[in-house]
Amino acid sequence: MLQLEELTATQSLAAKPRNRASTEQSIFLAARDLLAEQGFQGFGINAVARRAGCDKQLIYRYFGGLDGLLDAIGADLGNWVKDRIPQDSGGAFLLTYGDLMERLAILFMEALQDDPLVCKIIAWEVSKETPQVRRLSEARTKALAKWLEKMRGSLAPPKGVDAAIMNALLFAAIQHLVISAAASGQFAGVPLKTGKDWDKVAAAVRRLVRAIYG
């Protein structure tokens, strides 16, 4: 009976004219949503095909299978900050390296709050050691480093400040707070639920950046 249903579904899909770009997008979004909702445990060819409403053979044809889908998701994750934060963000108001990092830290925090899949991947980075997680993590990390480098342009940190270490600590703290908020709504007794809570976090981030970079 199941085989008959699958055959009927396949024939029905085959009978419809396909738009490759649209089908690829549907598969990609289905895979991304599925990964965000269920993690790798529920991430498989059949599950993605069901979510996308397509024949699973199209996943192999367009992406080469699950590895190809992961590569596509990794590329998208590598661009997620760039896509959400314009390169000219802040414009002429960014007069110093401190101005730049204050602006980027706040925008990074807001972008991260809007993307549950990125939050999950960051959590997986410290709790799972699998080729799949490593693949996604490396794509995100490299893209973030390139994005920071491009955004800073000719602005330079004050002498004697190890900007790479300081920025790593700053962004790691932001990531951890956003993940903690999603998991429990608080961190170390500090509430992270309302807009007022996050206004306090933003104010603290600004003070930290100013303390580091002047």
Automatic annotation (TrEMBL):
Domain (HTH tetR-type): residue spans on this chain: 21-81
Molecular function terms from GO: DNA-binding transcription factor activity; transcription cis-regulatory region binding
Coiled coil regions, renumbered to chain: none
Membrane-spanning intervals of the chain: none
Tagged with keyword Transmembrane helix: no
PROSITE patterns named among the record's database cross-references: HTH_TETR_2
InterPro entries in alphabetical order: Homeodomain-like_sf, HTH-type_TetR-like_transc_reg, HTH_TetR, Tet_transcr_reg_TetR-rel_C_sf
Gene3D superfamilies listed in its UniProt record: Tetracycline Repressor, domain 2
Superkingdom of origin organism: Bacteria
Protein name: TetR/AcrR family transcriptional regulator
